[in-house]
Specification:
Order of helices and strands: EHEEEHEHEEE
Number of strands: 8
Strand order of the largest sheet: 1-4-3-2
Structural class: alpha/beta
Oligomer: single chain
Distance between the termini: 40 Å
Radius of gyration: 16 Å
Helix content: 10-25%
Strand content: 25-35%
Length: about 170
């Protein structure tokens, strides 16, 4: 994504949305967990609206948004429990090589509060694509579509611990 021509006000993060009453306090990243180094990236036809949806409705934190005129050149949205996503306004030249076209991305987001999140997103009228269910691999999860058509899964499965190095 293009990161040129940043406006000064784009550097200031917006105050995060407080948790809903049924969510309690959001978890911090696991102590001792390494900083995330894999970041899903996507482009949006209406990046400001997607940012508003992911922050205001889903619960991501608006960490930084760099603009270039009326375009979002680069945005970083952090998940309160760890990790995050990067996005920007649709750029057909970049889409083929880096991010794909709007509505073609998918991401899995780990949360300890999957039931409360499902209830909140359902109440907000978000399109649920996979109902809340217990999975045979130990996760409890559900899926949604964002306004751009990207697929998001939210679940309790944090992945398996990394094997210890050998030798």
């Amino acid at each position: 994504m293009n990161t040129t021509a940043r406006t000064p006000e784009s550097h200031a993060p917006r105050t995060p949305r407080p948790p809903a009453a049924d969510e309690g306090t959001r978890d911090a990243p696991r102590p001792g967990a390494p900083a995330p180094t894999v970041w899903p990236t996507l482009q949006a036809r209406d990046a400001p609206a997607l940012i508003d949806f992911l922050v205001g409705t889903v619960g991501f934190l608006r960490t930084v948004v760099h603009t270039d005129g009326d375009r979002v050149a680069h945005a970083q949205l952090d998940w309160p429990e760890g990790g995050g996503v990067m996005l920007g306004s649709y750029d057909p030249a970049a889409a083929a090589g880096i991010c794909g076209t709007p509505g073609t991305s998918g991401a899995y987001v780990v949360t300890a509060r999957v039931d409360a999140l499902h209830a909140r997103l359902t109440a907000a009228g978000v399109r649920i694509t996979g109902e809340l269910a217990d999975k045979p691999y130990g996760s409890r999860e559900f899926g949604i579509l964002d306004p751009e058509g990207n697929r998001w899964s939210f679940g309790t499965y944090p992945g398996e611990p990394r094997p210890a190095p050998t030798g």
